[in-house]
Protein 1
Amino acid sequence: MNTALPADIAEFAAVATKRFAGFGGPQAALRAETDDDLRDEARRALTDLGAFDLEVRSDSNDLLAAAVLCQAAGAAALPYPLVEELLAIDGARLTLVNPAAPRIDHGDLPGEWIAADLDGARYLPQPSSRTDAKLGPFLVPATLRGPEGTVPAADIELHLVLGSWRILGAVQRLLDIAAAHVRTRIQFGKPLADFQAVRFAIADASVAVRGLDELAKYTTWRLDSAPTQVRTADALVLRLKAADTARQVLRTAHQLLGALGFCDESDVSVLDRHTQPLIRLPVSTEVLAQRLLPDVRSGRLETLFSVPEHT
């Protein structure tokens, strides 16, 4: 089975990666924590790429282009709510929240917002000011009015999937940094990469990242053809896998880089802090797993080991 991206999508991904590198990558995201003008520049970079012309809801090619754009944004820790604006409803950015503790990444930016929980209940959020937290430096607490109506299930699925592509980009960048570090860092007279335990750690992280990459492609492809119940489960599984992979790769990167990985001079630290909202929100991985249990028990959740139904 050929899972390579179409040539035009791969080219678009390369252009986006180059544009975000020109913006400054993770270190630009670090500077954006104290310079709001940089978030305006991030949006201009997205506009230059035609991001907001993509019809992610109705065109499968545009959806795949949006996916690789989110992947490139994740690798660069782009300081802008890309997924939320790609899925805007009547000009209002769409964010997923936990109604019990609503928080919005980049919620302090000008413009209207619409919030939804994983069940599709629609809320009107009122973001407050930033808290300057280290983990998720752009997170903003919010109060919710409603629920008032619903958001289509397809929008919730797209939000989960595109957010997972952002996580994928971040973990791929983290793996590259860790692999480069162990090849150049000399310890006891030889590179860290010469130690078997280090090789095993990098290999395990690489397998996890490659698995996430394949699952992201598969899930995005299935959004166009699978029944609603299956699409919802697929999106939840992808987000669960993305969050678990991020934790594994972050743990490996921090272990191998040591204290350097916790300094903002290192892209590992910046990627970690800026990816935390995607890993933790709108709900924890434990809650995501619990939401899948009914489908597991009923047999509606399709896996590699599912038995086809015969009629």
Protein 2
Amino acid sequence: MNQLFRKKSISLLLDEAKNDSGLKRELTAKSLVALGVGAIIGTGIFVLTGTAAANFAGPAIILSFILSGFGCVFAGLCYSEFSSMIPIAGSAYTYSYATLGEFVAWIIGWDLILEYLFASSTVAVGWSGYFVSFVKDFGIIIPEKLCSAPFDHIPGEGWIATGSILNFPAVALVILVTALLVVGIKESSRINNIIVFVKIIVILLFIGFGLSHIDTSNWTPFIPENTGKFGSFGISGIFTGAGVIFFAYIGFDALSTAAQETKNPARDMPIGILGSLAICTVLYVAVAAVLTGIVNYKELNVSAPIALAIDRAGDSLIWLRPLVKIGALAGLSSVVLVMLMGQPRIFFSMAKDGLLPATFAKVHPKFKTPHITTVITGTCSAIIAGLLPIGLLGQLVSIGTLLAFTIVCASVIILRITNPDLHRPFKTPFVPWVPLAGIVICVAQMISLPVDTWWRLIIWLAIGLLIYFLYGRKRSNLANK
């Protein structure tokens, strides 16, 4: 038991942060906010808002976003404390290693691998839908067999074959972004800044011009009556909707993986995390309100809900349709970029600790990026994006994210008790109440997710435990010491 819960000392982590890791410190507070917005504003607005409203919450999807936003703020405050105090790539994995021990750190690291792998794949599938629609406007028709998954999963019925070959646009996007990330973090950040600017402008245009087309009768009833099934509208539907769209908020977790590439992490990481959260929560709530005001929630179960809302608004907004598609393509591209940036750095940290093969910790001699893990991540993500449907992928990401946030919030409370005098450049306020609130909200949303999602998480964690006991436990740096 002592071996399972051996901890990595804070002083050792701080020494690692000071030593040359091979990664270049290029990111500033502004670039971190842009990366956060780039990761958070994407599928949640352009795809999942409509499907979550149609299937779970109705117009009360607005409350789902607020609920998820509160959970993220509480978790974000805890992340800010850790990322400023322990500025190392690894995110929740590193934080739990210092507070809860190696076994828990492995579980959360393995969970984060699931989170980022399926997040990038999910968003790539959403991007593919908008891309196919965009090129169709110019007379270019991509056959259905080449732009959708060959497999689908229907609740209660299981897996079915769709007759398609592969989602080629999704695969192509992942390969392109992977190549960019191998070249360098600075170049990736610059391109992300441009993309974020484009999609924020498009979203503001939709909100601004869409306000005058709202039909308030579409907000009645604001909370549709529950159908008799948990999570199908009513109060439980708000929680289930919040759990499903929580996937949209994982961007600030990806930010914390870039702490070792930030110029002044003690100051810049909290700004990046909390700043991007504040901006995105306001935009999500505003878009959800306009969207459900223009289109009745029952009709929003489509892959491009904002485009549908523009069509319903009539000729006065038709000029906005191509801009929305451009914004969606830009927005979803930046999410894929940040997700594919986050996972290799989790691999990097776990390999540096000896829990994974040392090859995963290699840095490119010229580009100073974890190129091997980036290529592995990109390849796996491309395969998943090409083969699996978006609904299944999104639920897997949500439960992985919620578990990570729960553990980080718990870690703050534990470290305040075990090491109260540790220097904390940023301190989470009102401990333990803020972390406890984060835990309660995240656990409530996890409970609201479908049972099948829990089984998939359990199977994934079982595979991870097998790897840990056969490889990582004996080869970790702490075990060798």
